[in-house]
Amino acid sequence: MPNIKSAKKRVLTSAKKKENNNVVETRTKTSIKKFVKEVETGNKESAKEKLDIAIKNIDKAASSGLIHKNKAARQKSRLMKMNNKIEETK
Length: 90
Hints:
CATH class: Mainly Alpha
Shape: elongated
Distance between the termini: 60 Å
Structural class: mainly alpha
Number of helices: 3
Strand content: under 5%
Oligomer: single chain
Low-confidence stretches: none
């Protein structure tokens, strides 16, 4: 445990930031999984809604610096590819 006042404060603030980052990361991963599940079942309308939510969450994570901008672009590209594939099939 730190003895200096500013070090104690850093411990508290870093714990808060970690908690917030975990929430955002979990929300992003969950929204991606929900979209993939809808694609696998073949629901085009529901998949489109889940895609919008997933892209929104990915953008939020990238803008806050939680994930790298190139990783965000790669994830969005893969999701769009899956969406386009389901649009073509039906």
